[in-house]
Write a structure and sequence with these properties.
With 340 residues, the protein is α/β, with parallel strands linked by helices. Helices cover 21% and strands 29% of the residues. It folds into 2 domains: 3-61 and 157-337, QueA-like (3-Layer(aba) Sandwich), CATH 3.40.1780.10; 65-140, Thrombin, subunit H. The mean pLDDT is 96.
């Protein structure tokens, strides 16, 4: 398939720059059996059934962006992609000239960093202060908003670009379908008989990258870490046994689950995934997907087309544009029942 087949016209005015005034006060497009319904996210509760299991990604966004200087005086911008251990990270580094191994950087006017070398497209950096790198990121870093959000991160973003159930630090982008949930909605789902389970997938900056190859099979996915708890596997097995459905909140939850089921059955445990889900993929775990609206020609749009049908999903996107749904991280939601 050609990448251009996944393009669509999107006016800049539909790219949400701020979250809705109240968490969860978003619109939701419901796609099922070839039908599109304009709903509100508050209707999500009515559309789930007792015995369903809702799977949430509990990753927590880290303050991964830094500005600073090289020893030579040149300016640098650093975006941490992955925390490796208590002192080392992989990161994107922007500078007039790429820093060589052995170069030292001063970030946020106080953090001394040593460049250890390159690992593919990333730089291997060591934070020289004694404190744990996650503590230093939280104290001195800046929230890494997506490139299509034009304002600098502020106090509102620090609250709203984080899910209410975030607990495992490591992502550089939010699992944005999860941003719609508030505590009241989660409790109402439990009261209805929906089981809430968790996975962890630390979202990388590559999630924002469009596919730049002419044919989609030529694209190479970025890798992300995931963890599937034993309790989540058990909850999914119970739901399937009782006739319930597996509802993934976000493409990240779906990718983690499908990655852990590549051998046929869902397996608990941790791993790395570069799974690229495109039309023709056979889904093994997820029955229903809650997601936001994605970038044109992106791997996430391709995943959505694989899940709900390419013709149906591109039609749904045209409907969303025509009806002025809000797009991307702070935008509206879409609930999709898998096309069998």
């Amino acid at each position: 398939m050609r990448t251009e087949e996944f393009n669509f016209a999107l006016p800049d005015t539909l790219i949400a720059q701020h979250p809705p005034a109240v968490r969860g006060a978003s619109r939701m497009l419901y796609a099922h059996e070839g039908v599109l319904e304009d709903r509100q996210f508050s209707d999500f509760l009515d559309l789930l059934h007792p015995n369903d299991v809702l799977v949430l990604n509990d990753t927590r966004v880290i303050k991964a962006r830094f500005f600073g200087m090289k020893e030579s005086g040149g300016k640098v911008e650093v975006l941490v992609e992955r925390v490796l251990n208590t002192h080392e990270v992989l990161a994107q580094v922007r500078a007039s000239r790429s820093p060589l191994a052995g170069t030292r950087l001063m970030l946020a006017d106080c953090l001394l960093i040593e460049v250890l070398g390159r690992v593919g497209e990333f730089f291997h950096l060591r934070f020289l202060p004694d404190e744990d790198v996650l503590v230093l990121l939280e104290q001195y870093g800046r929230l890494p908003l997506p490139p299509y959000i034009t304002h600098a991160a502020d106090g509102e973003d620090e609250q709203r670009y984080q899910t209410v159930f975030a607990r495992t630090a490591g992502a550089v982008a939010a699992p944005t379908a999860g941003l719609h949930f508030n505590d009241a909605m989660l409790q109402a789902l439990r009261d209805k008989g929906v089981t809430i389970a968790y996975v962890t997938l630390h979202v990388g900056a590559g999630t924002f990258q469009p596919v730049r190859t002419e044919h989609i099979h030529e694209h190479v996915m970025h890798y992300e870490r995931y963890d599937i708890p034993t309790a989540t596997v058990a909850a999914i097995q119970r739901a399937k046994t009782c006739g319930g459905r597996v509802v993934a909140a976000g493409t990240t939850s779906l990718r983690a689950l499908e990655s852990a089921a590549q051998q046929g059955e869902l397996q608990a445990g941790s791993g790395e995934t570069g799974i690229f889900i495109t039309p023709g993929y056979t889904f093994r775990v997820v029955d229903v997907l809650l997601t936001n609206f994605h970038l044109p020609q992106s791997t996430l749009l391709m995943l959505v087309c694989a899940f709900g049908g390419m013709t149906e999903m591109l039609s749904a996107y045209r409907h969303a544009v025509e009806n002025q749904y809000r797009f991307f991280s702070y935008g509206d939601a879409m609930l999709i029942e898998r096309k069998i």
